[in-house]
């Protein structure tokens, strides 16, 4: 049964990721992937904060949100490919900035999500 929850969450996360990719942005910098990963980090931080503090949340619900939705929504493989392309195209500064921003902002996003979860009454 756990696989079904992961699959359903993954489908929703993947559809949301695809929807973000349709936003018309004209830049060589992979801003949509960066923003998607930051949003996913905030979401998973929020989920961890809500489920860790409040308890009583089923394992299937946690699998649905963390593994399914967040896993389907965030884009580490796309991030890695885009960072590689920037560096491979000798755009070293942009590649370095992208890697540092992605890591730093996503870690900060998890912290923000956990802090936001403390504000929610569930």
Percent helix among the residues? Answer: over 70%
Q: How can the largest sheet be summarized?
A: none
Q: Could you say which overall geometry the principal axes of the C-alpha atoms support?
A: globular
Average pLDDT number: 93
How many domains in all? 1
Polypeptide structure, described:
There is one protein chain. The protein has 122 residues and is mainly alpha-helical. The chain has one domain. 80% of the residues lie in helices and 0% in strands. The protein has 5 helices and no strands. The chain is globular and about 50 Å long. The mean pLDDT is 93.
In short:
By secondary structure, the chain is mainly alpha-helical.
Highlighted features:
80% helix, 0% strand, globular
List the topology elements.
Elements: H1 2-21, H2 31-54, H3 59-73, H4 76-88, H5 92-117
